[in-house]
Amino acid sequence: NLTGPIIAYNGALAKMISTGEVLSHTPIPPEIADEMVEYCLSRGIHLNFYLNEQVYVQRINGWSRLYDSRTGSRSRRMDLLKLKGNAPPKLLVIDHPSRIKGLIEEFRSLLDNRLYFLITMPEYIEFMNKEVSKGRALRDIMDRIGISRGEVAVIGDGNNDIPMMEEAEIRIAVDNARDEVKDMADYVVRSNEEDGVAEAIEILIPPPSRPLLSSRSIS
To answer: Which domain does 34 fall in, by range?
Structure first.
């Protein structure tokens, strides 16, 4: 079983798995979260509200079921207005890929640079505190447990992993990663659906009978 630190919510939260100790936590300010909830409800936009490791939605629909099927979560129906005053680690808008670009422009105008947001899947726009990144969370962990950049390896696939990869000595991308991630990787392994993480571990800790793979290897 894993016992070390984990980065969650795109870097908004870092904590120890074994003890639950929070190493860093940078949530969305409550007043901005409230504004997002009111805007999405008025526009009929699906919104996931994250709080205390639970996902809340205004209604169970095709988008919530898609999210749950991908993540193994179980979204809970709630009037999101009842969550006003809380500071979620992140918010997630889900909509048809053809609408995402237009929604980005809407939220850019609404938020005026008050939140950090990015597209993490064709249907997803994720919103975090503008100080959040996986790179910052990784630095917090490194400082807290006393390790250096030279002792860190990361594996990633999306643009939200780039800040984390910039902090690591060894950078690994899975084969289905975005091109920008592959371009900065030292190694490219099989996709995350084809045991790419296991292959990455073997690169870092090869079996006695297997030599270290060459840089940017694809099996």
So the answer is: 30-129
